Amino acid sequence: MSHFANTPARDRLEQILSRLNDRRHEEKAFVRLYAERARAEADAADRRRQGGASLGALDGKIVSIKDLFDVAGEQTLAGSIIRRDAAPAQRDALVVQRLRAAGAVIIGKTHMTEFAFTAVGLNPHYPVPGNATDQRLIPGGSSSGAGVSAAEGTCDIAIGSDTGGSIRIPAALNGIVGFKPTASRVPLDGSFPLSPSLDSLGPLARTVADCAITDAVMAGEQPIPPVARPIAGLRIGIPRGRLLEELSPEIANAFAASLDRLAKAGAEIVDCTLDDLIERLAEATRIGSIAGLEASRIHAGWLNDDGAPVDDRVKLPLRRRLTVPDAAISALLETRRALAAAMDERLSPFDLIALPTTPIAAVPIASVETDVAEYNRVEGLLLRNCQVANQFDLNAITLPMPGLVRPAGLMLVGRNGTDATVLASALSAEALLQEN
Q1: In terms of CATH, what superfamily is 9-218?
Q2: Contact 172, 401 (CB under 8 A)
């Protein structure tokens, strides 16, 4: 578990607040801090611990939350300045209530891309949080501050949202673990929506165990520390085809080496094909992505306002989607349901599917800030493998792959509802990948 296991929560919190105070004039990962409330929560956790009345594995853990979760009494900005006039939230988001009830110390809200719509990590209203491993590199998005805060240790666990990879992309690029649950397991109440059909809420942390405990609390399940499932005997499918194209040489090598470790530990590695199902969904979404179409309805109120101070990378694609009729969106969602059922059947012979989380590592911020074509290329690659789990209603985890200069992830994907299997297998895979 955490390397601070015996340090009081208040002491760890003060170390983090001191770090954040030292850089307060150039803070980029956090957009809001709750220092006083966090101190009270940390003190309460320490008192429970001294009295032998701990609330469990999350009690006293320092947790950051993405800027799209409601906190009672304040506006929920979702990374956008046009939300500054919104009515304050009446109550905390349901997952935030559950985290607090489990003893989590909520330290602050983290940077995100505007309305969670983009995956690179840039938001024109805020400075870009540099990657935790190198400030000059992109953090990945949309849970950009979440990935940076968990990787740099300004929280133990970060809570993000994932509509097309928004937890797994920043986790992979910052060298940590990120888990996207089966969407229906974790309630969305009190989280600002991007795409209700695709949105999932989940944790980013430095260990699988921390992600598993947090996920259980968020889902309203008993947070029992997970038991590793042996790698031996697991049947792991490798989707040959488009999802393994355009890999950087380093990631291709690291992925092959990771599969090699799994095979040596007794996993059965079997090729499979998903390209036909992915192609059929691509065909159905020629009218627009599901996320873009659903978001265009959520944001219809301001989308035709040319003066709306919103990132063009958000405004223009969503405005184009406004013209698509509701009936066409309903038909698309029906097609998606049928294809998700076909994918479930396709994956039934396997315990897991393994992929590189992203085909490339983090690129320099400077390379995408003004070059639209390069930005679009990078974003397309970052989303490509991750979005399959959202589109086909699966669950997925990313683990850091060893031996890389710039971090990248190994993604393990499971069928709808197999979250426990994926997390238990990831515990074993994590130990295997960390062996020298």
Answers
A1: Amidase signature (AS) domain (3.90.1300.10)
A2: no
Establish whether 289 is a catalytic residue: no
Write down the catalytic residue from 2, 64, 80, 142: 142
Q: Mean pLDDT in the chain? A: 97
Look at domain 235-434 and name its CATH class.
alpha beta
Q: What is the per-residue DSSP string for 107-150?
A: EEEE---GGG--SS---TTSPPPPBTTBTTB---SSSHHHHHHH
- Report the pLDDT value the prediction gives residue 5, as an integer from 0 to 100: 59
Per-residue burial over 15-47, b if 16 or more Cβ lie within 10 Å, else e, is ebbeebeeeeeebbbbbebbeeebbebbbbbbe
**Is 367 a catalytic site residue?**
no
- Topology agreement, domain 9-218 and domain 235-434: yes
Can you list the residues of the chain whose pLDDT is less than 70? 1-5
Instruction: Single out the catalytic residue among 2, 28, 64, 66.
Output: 66
66 catalytically annotated = yes
Catalytic residue (choose from 80, 161, 166, 296): 166
Which pLDDT does position 281 carry in this prediction? 98
Query: Is residue 170 within 8 Å of residue 409, measured between CB atoms?
Result: no
